[in-house]
Amino acid sequence: MNSTVAVVGAHGHTARFVLTQLRALGLTPVPFGRGTALAFDGVAAVVNCAGPFADTAVPVAEAAVRAGAHYFDISAEQAVTMELLARFRDADVVVAPSVAFYGGLGDLLATAAMGDWPAADEIRIGTVLDSWLPTAGTRRTITRNAGRHVTYTGGQFVPPAEPSTVEWDFAAPIGERKLVELSTADQVTIAHHLRTPRITVHINTEPLADLGDPDTPPPAPADDLGRSAQTFHVEVEVRRGGERRGASASGRDIYAVTGPIVATAVTRVLDGGHTGARTAGQLGDPAGFLRALTPAHLTVNLASRCQVYPAS
């Protein structure tokens, strides 16, 4: 099996974790800088880490497809993910955008929780971050994508209305938290393949305050793996009538965990059997995918139960 993987934007913050995990899984990453010509002859896959992806995703994906290489990216950008999933739906190779903390982890949890249900009435994601120390790339992406966000309701993407708030009763030790609605790539990746008329994502307000503060510093290494001290917890609730199913995952550093998520996706695709536009949840057995990330990168509960209700 050809194990060579081109990594575009290889000098970025998150790319360091991607390179490390590709090597850990026995693959051979080849770093590509932002100014490097997109010549992917002889590589099996391309992982695009060069944001903002509104500028890079389509040309890098097109170059990968022309070379017969599978394409992955770590974008959290809704509009870009929608475009790639539509443009490369019938590609002869896999085109998998948003295989990352945003867009990938929620999709994996939702798909695992959905299980054998053919459809659901609603899918909800609740996220708690203890902080958000944004990279320079995250700040550039926010500016580049201003005004391009959508929500998913009534089975279609629509411009966001006034963000809703909910009270989410998380598993201990987090407990009950007030969350605000957030537009993320998860709405796009989940809607691509799971049948449901409504997908919502909510997050606690503290990390959004960090994100909105221009003086918030970037992430700093706090362990031997280079991860920051940031922690995250994500719960997903899938509802059908009076029935509810749930799944959850906890870990450290939303940028660092993107490395093992996308590297694991690459190994699954290189094992064969997949083509076309796909999301992380469509790469076979999402529960097995999540278990492959434990315990080194995630703590996962695939039978969790959560309670969510509108905030008063």
UniProtKB/TrEMBL annotation:
Gene3D superfamilies: NAD(P)-binding Rossmann-like Domain (3.40.50.720). This is Saccharopine dehydrogenase. InterPro entries: NAD(P)-bd_dom_sf.
